[in-house]
Please model this.
Amino acid sequence: MRTVIAVAFAAVAATSLLADQRAPQSTATPWAMPRTADGKPDLQGVWSNATITPLERPANVKDLVLSEEEAARMEKATGDRVEERNLPSDPNRPAPPKGGDGSTGAAGNVGGYNTFWLDPGERVARVDGMPRSSLIIDPPNGRVPALTDEARARGQQRMKMMAGRGQYDHPEFRPLAERCILSFGPTTPLIPNYFYNNNLQIVQTPDHVMILMEMVHDARIVRIGGTHAPKHIRPWMGDSIGRWEGDTLVVETTNFPPQQQFRGASENLKVTERFRRADATTINYRFTVEDPTTFTAPFTGEIPFRAMDELIYEYACHEGNYALANVLSGARNEEKRLGTKQ
Amino acid sequence: MIAPRLLRDISVALLSATIVAAGFWTAAPVETQPARPARLANGKPNLNGIWQALNTANYDILSHSAKAALAFRPGPVVPVPAAGVVAFGAVGAVPAGVGIVEGDEIPYLPEAKKKQLENQANWLDRDPEIKCYLPGVPRANYMPFPFQILHSDKAIFFSYEYAGAVRNIYLTDPGEAPVDSWMGQSFGRWEGDTLVITVTGHNDQSWFDRAGNHHSDQLKVTERYTPQGPNHLWYEATIEDPQTFSRPWKIRMPLYRHINPDARLNQFKCVEFVEELMYGKFRKTPVQ
Model:
């Protein structure tokens, strides 16, 4: 993890150096699109999609493009927070108060993971040099469109189903990431998880593009051309078909399984991704999410992928998953203790 | 003496048989995959494709007869399948196989041999495959599932159907593995038309097969992949682990390419499939 954090800093340094050089100088050698033997843009390498720019624009921010001053302020605030939270923990600190200490996210309300274990990114997303306030660019307000009545009804149905059942009753009620089935962020589209290991590797052949996510060693193999699997074949991460539109790789993914929810969408979800190399160290990644049964309108976002000069290591999640057994058996012990077990 | 007429009939029959046979061998398949170049632009053999071993080495890498089950308990006459597998009937039986180990012998040190026998006797509790753990190398290559090699001028990547295991084959030496892992660290280089991959940085948890064959974290596997035509690779792996074996030993087998036109790697993310086995006892109400 320490390596990964150091690497992220190194990549940031390299990127900003390039950005500084790129704008004003006309004497620099123009960047030429790297190409594979069959003439396609070469997307291969190890990339990071980590960023502090949120998926949705905060309510108090109006514009998609931030000023450099605003971006610098956000980045400094993040850096200061990381530095502060990286201070050694007090070994004599008391146990968290009953009911939790109010900490959220990785700290899990009991002072869990500290910042040492996290690597959510330090930089505002910049697309074509412009700092962004949200990853979503359309609709123009930078927010996920409202849910349809049908989707709201589905949500209520789920709530009704869960009423009277505890979230620790069965492994199937635990999140997919806790079960080591998928990463805790969306896997298709490649939205950062704002947590850690936002690293991916692309390998490209004339008929396949493989996208490996570090999280849970998930390799999504995109077939170039052809047709989607039959409707009843629904692999995790969906079924991806790619095509080249000029120098842009376009990947369309459908056939998501019902258990894989993206903001309430799953079986009718269609994700269209566009990969376009922007410069020597950047892929501009654009995604469009459509599901007329869930969202009142499609939405589109953009994320810069930054080149990393580092290796991805094995994320063997399930093999060391003591937590899931402990979460469930802890709940059973608690029931026994309280005498509530029927 | 054979009658001339009979001789003539025999010749005609032989001739017809030859014609039929020739027709059979030269007939084009109904539908084929698009042509696949033998080499990449950089001149290396093209390893792209979906590959699979066709043997029973995942049951036991040594020669073995068919038997009723992988786990037994004492019976009144002969041992009978263990309670945990008896319901499988013939499906839980083990098919016979010719071993993949050169010389058909694993040179265990005495303590390591004892551990193998214990592993085998406790197969249901100990085999990492039962819990859907990552298979390690070389076992990943002869599991009864295909794997896809993605090969470009810049990268060689193995994606396995079983458990979604992956290996990125580093093409420049990354140095010593910083940490042990299930799939190890793979460093590949070419010796002529043979891809040689040195795999180090293994943990001591993965097995070679369902027969309890094991290794320590000192394992080093040197794999050799040599194309034998468009649809076959010859696979050899030298196994070294001075903590477990008295000398290096070798496994070998062909790997076959899936040539059906709609061949693709499917998904076998088995983590979900073993939740009842691993966590069923922690349910609020265990399933009876």
About this structure: The two ends of chain A are 44 Å apart (CA to CA). Residues 40-64+134-338 of chain A form a domain with the Lipocalin fold (CATH 2.40.128.20). Confidence is low (pLDDT under 50) at residues 1-25 of chain A. The first strand of chain A starts at residue 45 and ends at 48.
